[in-house]
Design goal:
The complex is a heterodimer of chains A (292) and B (194).
Chain A (H helix, E strand, L loop, with lengths): L15 H9 L8 H16 L9 H22 L1 H9 L3 H7 L4 H5 L7 H10 L13 H5 L15 H15 L6 H16 L1 H6 L2 H16 L4 H14 L6 H14 L3 H14 L3 H13 L1
Helix pairs in contact in A: 2-3, 3-4, 3-7, 3-9, 3-12, 9-10, 10-12, 12-13, 12-14, 13-14, 14-15, 14-16, 15-16
Chain B lengths: L2 H13 L6 H18 L4 H18 L9 H18 L1 H18 L4 H18 L4 H12 L4 H8 L3 H33 L1
The chains are: A mainly alpha (292), B mainly alpha (194).
Chain lengths: 292, 194
């Protein structure tokens, strides 16, 4: 211990400025108990995910983990486009929504205050495996080309855990390479059903594929814009005329900006403002233009 | 922050026949991972996500963790990788800097003048620390700011204590160069401002 080097701030012959700067440093903060518990819930969900589903990229799994807890929230969220926009604008609130997840079934029920859009989405939610918006993307069409749906790994688990697992599996494949996008869709269709009949009854295959892509992109838009763009491109390819195409374009613009392609982002923002001057997105687009 | 106790615990766990589950690792080491990520320069607004990200990696790699290294050493190496990847997305950091520094500023004690000086120093310190690579940054914070004993640092890094000394030497040199660069920048700013 006596051979320990003298710390800069105790060393008289060290650079005075360096000493003063180091002296101003605050000791590393400790993990707040509330955060500890919150992440522990996510880790528990993660632990329920089958190891087999984890052979894909890191971010895919982060998104998957987020969905394990938050996918049901996302359903409610996207069904009310107003809430959807708000959440995107207040970045951190997406975390709040993830935390709210414990009771999936409860979250899926649209809030009484939700708009007409919400009730429309709720109708979509009802049938177990409703068709996705575009016929081109029906799971049944892809189902023939794909590897078999993942088997449930264990005996019946609580609905929440099953749901997390099913979503994990399907999402895991989403951001991967081109040909696998088919896999992801089929997984979405088939993956949920055998593992969790209860869960799949409230999470329709087609709808979830679209929402998962958008929601995943939204989670990544500032932290990993390139990956977000991959998801958004996939969304554009699979659901070219989707109801949420406008949201997609706004996300693309934001992702472009975050990935340093400010000029491109600004051009697209201006174009979008000109063609769809929706007040709903104007604030976000203007922020992109200001940043430029 | 009693890392030695954690190390002991990890050792005991490694000695026991049952290998730890993901939840076990989280319960024993969440604080350590959090502190390590923070030392690597991840700002408080991003720490939640980074913490989760580390445990996603742990979940995937835990089956192949054989206990050759200390659990903390293994976790620390994951933290370094996650933090390096995070740093490449510098915009995330910049976005939050203003807000966060403002927060720390308002919390600092002392007279407004002291407060301001302290605030400015901390701001410059953060900036200079971010000029170091993640490994050096974390090492400097552990030793110079959190004042961990070298022995403990050696246990975390999984290297002999002599290696810690030599790395510290290199790290201080790098920090010294960053301070010099700052000095030059400041002098130039004064010239152009005057």
């Amino acid at each position: 211990m006596t051979t320990e080097p003298i710390r800069l701030k105790d060393s008289l012959d060290s650079d005075e400025l360096a000493r003063a700067l180091i002296g101003a440093g605050k000791p590393t903060a400790v993990l707040p108990p509330a955060t500890r518990q919150r992440i522990e819930r996510r880790v528990t969900l993660l632990a329920a995910a089958p190891a087999a589903a984890l052979g894909v990229g890191l971010w895919a799994k982060v998104v998957a983990a987020a969905f394990g807890a938050g996918f049901a929230s996302a359903l409610t969220l996207v069904s009310a486009s107003h809430a959807f926009r708000q959440e995107s604008e207040n970045g951190p609130s997406s975390k709040t929504l993830r935390e709210r997840a414990p009771s999936h079934t409860a979250t899926i029920t649209p809030a009484p205050s939700a708009s007409a859009a919400a009730s429309a989405a709720a109708t979509d939610v009802a049938p177990p495996r409703s068709e996705p918006p575009k016929p081109a993307a029906t799971p049944s069409r892809f189902a023939s080309q794909i590897r078999p749906a993942p088997e449930p790994e264990s005996a019946p688990m609580p609905a929440g855990a099953d749901f997390g697992e099913a979503t994990n599996t399907s999402l895991g494949a989403l951001p991967s390479a081109e040909p696998e996008s088919h896999v992801s869709l089929s997984d979405l269709g088939a993956g949920g059903a055998p593992a969790a009949p209860v869960a799949s009854a409230s999470a329709p295959a087609g709808m979830s594929a679209e929402l998962q892509l958008l929601h995943g992109a939204r989670l990544l838009v500032s932290s990993d814009p390139d990956q977000a763009l991959v998801l958004l491109n996939r969304h554009a390819r699979l659901f070219p005329a989707a109801a949420l195409a406008l949201e997609r374009e706004v996300l693309v613009i934001e992702a472009l900006q975050h990935s340093g392609r400010a000029k491109e982002a600004a051009d697209r923002a201006r174009a979008l403002l000109a063609t769809s001057p929706s007040a709903l997105y104007a604030a976000r687009l203007e922020r992109v233009l200001q940043g430029h | 922050m009693n890392v030695l106790a954690l190390l002991q615990k990890a050792q005991d766990e490694a000695a026991s026949p049952a290998s730890p589950t993901l939840e076990d690792v989280y319960r024993s080491h969440a604080e350590f991972v959090w502190a390590s990520l923070s030392r690597c320069g991840i700002r408080s607004g991003d720490l939640d996500d980074a913490l989760q990200e580390v445990f996603v990696v742990v979940h995937r790699k835990l089956p192949s963790f054989r206990g050759e290294a200390q659990m903390t050493t293994w976790l620390y190496s994951i933290c370094l990788r996650v933090a390096s990847a995070h740093r490449r997305k510098t915009h995330v950091r910049r976005e939050r800097d203003a807000l966060e520094l403002h927060e720390t500023h308002s919390l600092a004690p002392g007279s407004p003048e002291d407060d301001l000086v302290e605030h400015q120093r901390r701001q410059v310190l953060e900036q200079l620390l971010d000029e170091l690579d993640v490994e050096k940054r974390a090492l400097l914070v552990m030793f110079e700011i959190d004042e961990l004993p070298c022995e403990e640092i050696a246990a975390i890094l999984g290297v002999p204590i002599g290696t810690v000394y030599s790395r510290l030497h290199a790290t201080r040199k790098a920090f010294g160069r960053a301070v010099d660069r700052f000095r030059t920048r400041a002098a130039r700013a004064r010239e152009t401002g005057a």
